[in-house]
What we know:
By secondary structure, the protein is mostly helical. It has 10 helices and no strands.
Amino acid sequence: MGLLNLLLKDPLTFILIAIPLLYSVILHELAHGWVAYRMGDPTAKMMGRLSLNPLKHLDPVGTLMLFIFGFGWARPVPVNFANLRENRKGLIFVSSAGIVVNMILAFVAIFLLQFLSPSSHSITAKMLYYMAHINIILAAFNLIPIPPLDGSKILMGFLSNRLQYSLARLEPYGFFIIIGLLYFGVLNPLIDFFRWIILSIINFLLFK
Length: 208
C-alpha cells in the first residue's frame, strides 16, 4: 500500500507513520550540519539549523515528493566547505553524513522488524516497513553523482580541482536534469544498484 493510499484508507496510521518518516529527512540534513560543525564549520549552528524542529528544515515540494514517490528532501543545511579543517576529507565526510544516517535508520527498522516480529497488519509493522523502505530509497537516491545530490559532492572529494569545477557547474541545472532522467526511467537502474548495495551491507551486519 502506497503512502497516499494509506492516507485515504487509514488516516490514523498514516499520521503515526508520517512523523518518523519526516524525521528521516530532517535527520539526513541535520547530520550534514552536525558533521560540518565538528569539522570546523559553524554555519549551520549559527543559522539555527542544528535543531530537530521540523519547521526549520521541511521543504514543501520535497515533503510532497516523499509521500508521492517515496523519496524527497528537506531544505539543505548550509555548509561552508571553505571552513572545514581538511577540505577533501571534510567534503566526503559531510556529504556522506546524511546517507549514513539513513542507512542506520533503515538498519534499526529492519532489525526491529526481525526482533519484534509484529503482525504484518499492525501499526508497528507498517511504521517499521516504511521507515526501512524510505530510508533505503533516500540513501540510494542521494548517492546519485549529479549535483546537488550528496553523491556528486562525495565524488568531488576524489576528483582533481579541474574536474570538481566541471561537475559543480552542473548544479544550477541539476534539479532539472534529475527530474528529466527520473521521468524517462534512466536513473532507475542506478537507484536499484545503490539499493542493492545498501541492502547487502545491512544484511551483512544483521546476519554476520
